[in-house]
Design brief:
CATH class of the largest domain: Mainly Alpha
Radius of gyration: 16 Å
Number of strands: 0
Strand content: under 5%
CATH architecture of the largest domain: Up-down Bundle
Distance between the termini: 27 Å
Number of helices: 9
Structural class: mainly alpha
Helix content: 55-70%
Order of helices and strands: HHHHHHHHH
Length: 182
């Protein structure tokens, strides 16, 4: 059961409505996560601020962004984000097998992407700390220091949503992600 009210555009606080409307247009519906974020204008505005910065200044393609989101979502056991980003990852061109591999941390289909998602997974697992060997492997795979710096923004927005979903007990309003094999 959600801890935070799930708003509609009409029931959201006035200051939250423009953010909720933008998210509804972007996603095709007001998703539960955004409907709950709308309960507090600062929460939904902060989320939109990070998303806007990534949209305006980010350099990663949709496939890379979704790979990071899947890795971080799995690391944090966020069922909502794994489900939502499974849908987005398919739209970005990732196959179901690749999506499962990214979530499991077994990215054998793209060595370069494997190193970047390992950086994201390590940072999410250890309060931002990334072992030198993991960082160096990403550099050796061709990621630049600027790209590794940008990765932090993608990790941060996914931590924000993962933690919010845990905090709010957001209920799934998209199909659940396929369970990983035991």
């Amino acid at each position: 059961m959600p801890r935070i009210p799930v708003h509609t555009i009409d029931s959201a606080p006035d200051q939250s409505r423009p953010h909720a409307e933008r998210l509804e247009r972007k996603m095709g519906k007001l998703m539960n996560i955004h409907a709950e974020m709308a309960h507090s204008p600062v929460v939904i505005a902060a989320y939109q601020g990070i998303q806007q910065a990534i949209a305006e200044h980010g350099t990663f393609d949709a496939r890379t962004r979704e790979a990071i989101a899947l890795a971080v979502g799995n690391q944090n056991d966020c069922q909502y984000c794994q489900a939502a980003h499974t849908i987005s990852a398919r739209k970005a061109g990732l196959s179901d097998e690749q999506i499962l591999a990214l979530r499991a941390g077994e990215v054998g289909f793209d060595d370069r992407l494997a190193t970047l998602t390992e950086v994201a997974r390590a940072a999410a697992a250890d309060t931002g700390n990334v072992p030198e060997a993991v960082w160096q492997a990403a550099l050796d795979a061709g990621w630049t220091s600027e790209e590794l710096t940008e990765t932090f923004a993608h990790i941060a927005v996914n931590l924000y949503t993962n933690y919010f979903n845990h905090y709010a007990h957001t209920e799934l309003d998209v199909p659940a992600a396929e369970p990983l094999s035991a």
